[in-house]
Amino acid sequence: MPDAAPRHPFDEAIHLAPADPGPGTVPGGRVYTGHTHPAYANMVGPFGGITAATLLQAALIHPQRLGDPVALTVNFAGPVADGPFTVEATPLRTNRSTQHWAILQRQGEEVTSSATAVFALRRDTWAATELACPEAPPIEALPRTDVGAIVPWTRQYEMRFVHGPLIGPARPDDERDSRSLLWLRDEPQRPLDVAALAALCDAFFPRILIRRPRRVPFGTVSMTSYFHADTAQLAAQGSQPLLGEARASHFGRGYHDQTAELWGADGRLLANTHQVVYFKE
Amino acid sequence: MPDAAPRHPFDEAIHLAPADPGPGTVPGGRVYTGHTHPAYANMVGPFGGITAATLLQAALIHPQRLGDPVALTVNFAGPVADGPFTVEATPLRTNRSTQHWAILQRQGEEVTSSATAVFALRRDTWAATELACPEAPPIEALPRTDVGAIVPWTRQYEMRFVHGPLIGPARPDDERDSRSLLWLRDEPQRPLDVAALAALCDAFFPRILIRRPRRVPFGTVSMTSYFHADTAQLAAQGSQPLLGEARASHFGRGYHDQTAELWGADGRLLANTHQVVYFKE
Question: What are the distances in angstroms from CA B105 to CA A224, B87, B241?
């Protein structure tokens, strides 16, 4: 009875059920219903990473899906209230080896998040990694960070910081930088797949919190992730920790960018991820 | 008679005229018609940057527009044939200081490109730039690159390479890297605005051409740009050259990522831009 086995909270959180498409759905579009999960709650609404994974999931389970995700952009349009939502996934165009998606999350009539995704059938080609995998002590040598008292979703991730923790020693702003280097993985442990990887791409705290810790409003407005591993390569990672490095290049006029990489335990680059973050003051 | 003055080819290329919205348009959506421009032709179809600028233009001229673009993602879904196209821009959600857009380019019934954009009313906040502006000799000290014999659109840009030109000395693959550093601007010169900046974000050649020059098929499938300057700050750049730096982190299984920055003449970071590029072999 595999259905009776307890599911990982991540799988509960991204679970979508087919729904009545309704009158406005375009050809090929499918509507699913989901529900926010308390384990992945943020200060207001859900953790952005779980929203990203849920929107991607709507394309992953769509009957017309082709291949694996290569690119995912999620725009956080407004707060998601605790409760039910719908996700509408539409394959805009399916080519021989690529597929383009539009995905909308709604609560009532209001769009709460939008996404686009590119899927592809991948095959072997020439390969090279130019970026060097950062050096880090083994995960066992580092203390575990617990910031779960502040936001519930962080309890769903094991995080061990090499550099740039959320709660670090007080330093003047001009001696700080926005770089973080950490080991991270799902908690409880869970074999890696692309939905989990999409969520991990948002598990780096917004860099404004690292660079200039103040109690000011902030939030990711748009996030784009590029995936460099297919289903089999991700499955081979199992539940080993990933090494993540994040930094910002510019803060100003209420927004900052953020760039990060997620490296597999074997030193393979699994994803690049970029976002733009709103901050006040 | 300002209307009689000759327009810059860029403004001709991104020109959109209001069209009949048609039966399938959602509330708030506006449909415009445009036409490919021979000056911005690529090997097949138009230069991706001019498509990105054209899709952004549909939101910029939409009567419900709020503020300036902060983030733009363009997905290149299929080839754009020389000729007319439509662009449908829909404000998915307008908040007090942010606005979320979905934009579709079509030829006939077929989606050729899709985009999302986040616009925002920006205001002064704490600011810092962590990334260092790369050092480069003055533009006058460098020779001008002409690759216009290969693809028409490159004649629309003045490009002067400090490092990583398209056509460089032959070297073994393992001695090459994918980094380019160059001065670039519109040709003929044109005062900078966000549409031109969105196009310039794609004016870096796909890194596979720099790292491993081979005659193999390639093409950008998705591009995301973050803009760090508002209308007034871009206008202050005038037609001075921008300094651009681009590199890839990973090539493999038919795709590579690419990251670049565009710096203003005053050393101000104007945009970060990221893309994922298909390549064969």
Answer: 21, 4, 30
B77, B118, B131: residue with CB nearest A75: B118
- As a whole number of Å, the end-to-end CA separation of chain B is 54
ipTM over 0.90: yes
**The residue count for chain B:** 281
| Coil/strand/helix, residue B20 | coil
Q: What residue type is assigned to position B269 of the chain? A: L
Give the alpha-carbon dihedral of B109, B110, B115, B119, to 10 degrees.
-10
Find tokens 């090494």 and name the residue. A243
**Burial label, B236 (beta-carbon count in 10 A; 0-12, 13-18, 19+):** middle
| Per-residue pLDDT reduced to its tens digit, B178-204 | 999 999 999 999 999 999 999 999 999
Nearest to B93 among A77, A115, A254 (CB): A77
Task: Give, for B186, the enclosing helix (H) or strand (E).
Answer: strand B180-186
**Nearest residue in chain B measured CA to CA from A115:** B116
Mutate to test the interface with B, among A226, A230, A281 (most CBs of B within 10 A): A226
CB neighbour list of residue A267: distance below 8 Å, 6 or more residues apart = A133
Across the interface, whether the CB atoms of A125 and B254 are under 8 A apart is answered yes
Q: With contact defined as beta carbons under 8 Å apart, do B99 and B119 qualify? A: yes
Question: Which tens digits make up the pLDDT trace of B79-133?
Answer: 999 999 999 999 999 999 999 999 999 999 999 999 999 999 999 999 999 999 9
Question: CB B104 to CB A116 under 8 A?
Answer: no
**CA dist B132 → A52, A169, A206, B15, B234 (Å):** 31, 25, 20, 36, 20
**Contact flag B248-A130 (C-beta cutoff 8 Å):** yes
B126 interfaces chain A, CB cutoff of 8 Å: yes
Rounded to whole angstroms, how far apart are CA atoms B1 and A276? 42
Q: Is A222 on the interface with B (CB under 8 A)?
A: yes
Of A122, A169, A129, A124, nearest to A264 by C-alpha is A129
Q: Which residues of B touch A251 (CB under 8 A)?
A: 125-130
Helix (H) / strand (E) element for B159: namely: strand B157-163
Contact (Cβ atoms closer than 8 angstroms) between residue B228 and residue B122? no
What is the pTM (predicted TM-score) of this model?
Answer: 0.96
B236 has a chain A CB within 8 A of its CB: no
Q: How far is CA B159 from the centre of its chain?
A: 15
Residues of chain B with Cβ-Cβ distance to A71 below 8 Å are 75, 221-222, 276
**CA-CA distances (angstroms) from residue A275 to A85, A215, A248, B226, B275?**
24, 20, 9, 8, 13
Nearest to B253 among A111, A122, A252 (CB): A122
